[in-house]
Amino acid sequence: MKNSENTSVIALKIASWRDYLALCKPKVVLMILITAMVGMYLASEHRFDLKLMLIANIAIGFAASAAAVINHIIDVNIDAKMQRTQWRPLVTQRISNKQALFFAASLASSSMFLLLTYINTLTALLTLAGFIGYAVIYSCFLKHKTPQNIVYGGFAGAIPPLLGWTSITNNIELEPLLLTLIIFLWTPAHFWPLAIDRLEDYRQANVPMLPVIKGVDYTKTCIVIYTLATVIASLLPYFFHYSGELYLSLVLLLGLWFGYYAIQLKIAANNQLALKTFRISIYYLIALFVALLVDRLALHWW
């Protein structure tokens, strides 16, 4: 008991704001906020409420950060076994599990307060569903039970454009659902290259990621399939008349770029392209959402 208290005191003394920031997975949260902001912009038309958009982004960011912290708490024993996660604050005991849980609860409750007070109930409920989907359903169950974990758990990471849209409109329409579909299909094509690159880490930690259970070659085939599905889904905003020829041209080029690396990864004899393909997938999604913005701006100007 005494040793536990001492450990907590030590963790409290040496923890910094950077440690708490690391618990939030800021790069992931930034991606979430970018796609949410695009949803807000597309929903806003010419009626921009900057205060509303700022509050909604803060609330969505708090919820995403809270889910990330919960994921750290649940995975602390797994993270200790993996080379890429051994530095995390809970593994090194710079922050205790109790401190992290309090931090997550503070973020989550602040998010719900902001959404219910200043935004709307629909966005609050959808945000809560995303939080539960990632922090509980994916992190506690799916990640450890099935090699299709990232597919089944993909909804939680795919809804930010929908959250951005509903925060402005307070209703669900087809356009943000198409954007959600794109991210849902993109997620496995994005994550599985990293799983290939970190295969031994996942195997050592006994996490049933697809390349561990089904093998690398099978996973590469799935990456190609999901990449193709993502590219096809990226055309839907054009065919449903939500975007114009500029968007179509840009996403076709982006799709060729992303698809090239997915195919090269598939035919390569080794896995050296896996990490590069993972990074390319991030640039691809950001560029796709930028293309949506550029196209919408161009339509307004013309």
Describe the structure.
With 302 residues, the chain is mainly alpha-helical. The chain folds into two domains: 1-171, Orthogonal Bundle (Tetracycline Repressor, domain 2), CATH 1.10.357.140; 173-302, Four Helix Bundle (Hemerythrin (Met), subunit A) (Up-down Bundle), CATH 1.20.120. The chain contains 17 helices and no strands. The longest helix is centred in the C-terminal third of the chain and has 28 residues, at 274-301. Mean pLDDT is 91; it is low at 1-12.
Q: Descriptors for this entry?
A:
302 residues, mainly alpha, Tetracycline Repressor, domain 2, Four Helix Bundle (Hemerythrin (Met), subunit A), 2 domains, 17 helices, 80% helix, flat, disordered N terminus
Summarize the structure.
Helix content is 80%, strand content 0%. The protein is mostly helical and 302 residues long. It has 2 domains: 1-171, UbiA prenyltransferase (Tetracycline Repressor, domain 2, Orthogonal Bundle), CATH 1.10.357; 173-302, Four Helix Bundle (Hemerythrin (Met), subunit A) (Up-down Bundle).
Task: Please identify the top-level CATH class of the largest domain.
Answer: Mainly Alpha
Within the CATH hierarchy, at the fold level, what is the topology of the largest domain? Tetracycline Repressor, domain 2
Give the helix/strand class: mainly alpha
Please give the share of residues in helix.
over 70%
Main sheet attributes: strand count, strand direction, barrel closure: none
Mean pLDDT: 91
Work out the strand percent: under 5%
DSSP helical segment count: 17
Task: Specify Rg, calculated over alpha carbons.
Answer: 20 Å
Sketch the topology as an H/E string, one letter per element: HHHHHHHHHHHHHHHHH
Uncertain runs are 1-12
Number of E strands: 0
**Fourth CATH level, the homologous superfamily of the largest domain:** UbiA prenyltransferase
Outline: flat
Please tell me the total number of domains: 2
CATH architecture of the largest domain: Orthogonal Bundle
Terminal Cα span: 70 Å
